[in-house]
Amino acid sequence: MKRENLIANFLINPTFILTILWYSLITISLVLA
Question: What domain range is 14 assigned to?
């Protein structure tokens, strides 16, 4: 049910996706650096 809630949040809050993508890019940058 948590997955369904996450999907619903993604559909309702696009900014949430952008935030996750942003932090993902930062994390990848730190790992590669």
Answer: 2-32
